[in-house]
Amino acid sequence: MNQLKEFYRLLTHSFRNLLPIILVVGFFQFAVMQQVPEGLGSMIMGLLIVVVGVALFLQGLEMGIFPIGKNLSNEFAKKGSLLWLMVFGFCLGFAAVIAEPALIAVASQAEFISEGRIQAFTLRVLVATSVGFVVALGVVRIVLGHSLHWYMIIGYLLVVAVTFFAPEEIVGLAYDSGGVTTNIVTVPLIAALGIGLAVSLRGRNALTHGFGLVALAVMVPMIVVQIYGILVFSFADPDLLNGAVAPMADTATLDEVAAPVAGSVLLGMLKDLLVMFRDVLPIIAVVLIFQYLVIRKHIAHVHKVFGGFVLVIFGLYAFVVGLKLGLFPIGQSMAEQLIALDRIFFIYLFAFTIGFATTMAEPALIAIGQKAEEAGKGRLNGNTIRILVAIGVAVGITVGVHRIIAGDSIHHYIMGGYALVILLTWLAPKYIVALAYDLGGVTTSEVTVPLVTALGIGLATHIEGRNVLIDGFGLIAFASIFPIISVMLYAIAVELTTRWREAQS
Fold first, then answer.
1. Which residue, 380, 359, 378, is CA-closest to 369?
2. Do residues 440 and 477 lie in contact, with contact meaning Cβ atoms separated by under 8 Å?
3. How far apart are CA 104 and CA 414, in angstroms?
4. What is residue 36's DSSP assignment?
5. What is the distance, to the nearest Å, from the Cα of residue 36 to the centroid of all Cα atoms in its chain?
6. Residue-by-residue DSSP string for 230-278
7. pLDDT tens sequence across 160-179
8. What region does 254 belong to: left with phi over 0, alpha with psi -120 to 50, or beta?
């Protein structure tokens, strides 16, 4: 009975997360376009399946994965072994990201749009390996007590430098790949690891040292994917590179190439579930190996843990099916209809409102905001943080949409944005830097990613003269950059105001 009550709570929580998106889409569909979208029944069914999938997934995490993860972290802290902490951090980061449904969707779209030059599985492995490496590095940073400033400044200088040389076909995808690494699985696992480790070590501050792992997990994949793109596009067949990119004309094509969709018969459904199991298997393997071979203790309530794993797999399956039926078609349909209106203002307004609405409802952001408020001890307010981040995301997506409409190169926007971020890192109060970078990583939710990605691809597909691979990706990157800027600017303004008041008194 308690489990049913908890599942109902998660179900309503998942629906509340989707509600702002439904309201925004409904307003534009009926008040602006004044028409019922094609395939409305399928879209509604897809949204409901997403709600159920997310609820099942979260229930599985609470029942199985989180308790074991927390126990492993405590055991490693007791051992005091930096090497084992690094190994555990690497394996945890790799396993969480390789199973990330948003990354699966983005990588699949990239393989289709690039006509196979970018391989989806290779892209996922590269991103997961880089996240694992950087989580291990972040653990070392916390143990040694280093400030995050130099890690981020040097890292983003390298990001900007690589962007300068990277082919424009890969830049938007690279930044989007970094953005989707911090999602429904990684944010809770990685953030809990960092904060828990900082709290357990003497002389470490939860706000200054505990945050930052999520930020590192966003940054490094951007570098790795761009290097991958340089190699792919430098050695690919020139005839392929100059060829037309296949447009994503309908949702049936997307269904065939994106993450697995529901089979029409029992055998097809079983096959899709087995694929989901393959994607979650790395997390299960990491947990079991470290539990039995390193910690050498039996799992408490093993039946409950096993049930949690099963729910995670079924939740991921339902989530992916719902995306294909609901959110991807909505994003593409809205883009097509807004362009047909020939009123650019409404495209910008939709981008701003959908960015703000999805971010305010983002559960990972709410959780991080609460943790930051606790760690800040009066200096930070969770609701203020959410509003600042939501404004940053809304502005970022609007700027990204403008780039697609104007046909500008993403290089200049990205390099300019991170140049500003680097400058603000120098100027901002030290206590806010790690949190600001982490907040830039938690803005890409399990709902926002597919909707925003579909919006970008839809705009690039239906605006004449745009290349889907070059112009369609990148909105997620803008949604990650601008919250960092908004939070740091706010912290700088508060500090300057405080100093001015102290000088006046």
1. 380
2. no
3. 24
4. P
5. 31
6. HHHHHHS-HHHHHSPPPP---HHHHHHHSS----SSHHHHHHHHHHHHH
7. 888 888 877 777 777 777 76
8. alpha
Number of structural domains the chain divides into: 1
pTM, full prediction: 0.72
Residue 262 has pLDDT above 50, yes or no: no
pLDDT digits (tens, 9 = 90+) for 81-122: 788 888 888 988 888 788 776 677 777 767 876 777 888 888
**Angle between the N-to-C axes of helices 148-165 and 213-235, in degrees from 0 to 180, rounded to the nearest 10:** 20
Give residue for tokens 């910690």.
295
Which structure tokens are listed for 436? Answer: 């600001």
Please report, for residues 166, 241, 420, 471, 489, the alpha-carbon distance to residue 411 in angstroms, rounded to integers and kept in the order given.
9, 19, 14, 11, 23
- Spell out the residues 6+ positions from residue 277 whose beta carbon is closer than 8 angstroms to its own: 313
Q: Which range (151-160, 235-244, 444-453) has the least confidence?
A: 235-244
Give the residue among 318, 328, 325 at the shortest CA–CA distance from 449. Answer: 328
Which structural domain, as residue segments, surrounds residue 132? 2-504
The contacts of residue 60 (CB under 8 Å, 6+ apart) are 307, 308, 309, 310, 311, 312, 313, 314, 315
Report the run of H or E that residue 340 belongs to, with start and end. Answer: helix 328-341
Q: What is the mean pLDDT of residues 272-300?
A: 77
Q: For residue 457, give both structure tokens.
A: 């691809």
CA distance 217 to 162: 17
* Residue the block writes with tokens 């409950």: 304
Q: How many helices (H) and strands (E) does the chain have?
A: 23, 0
> In terms of Cα–Cα distance, which of 212, 90, 192 is closest to 150?
212
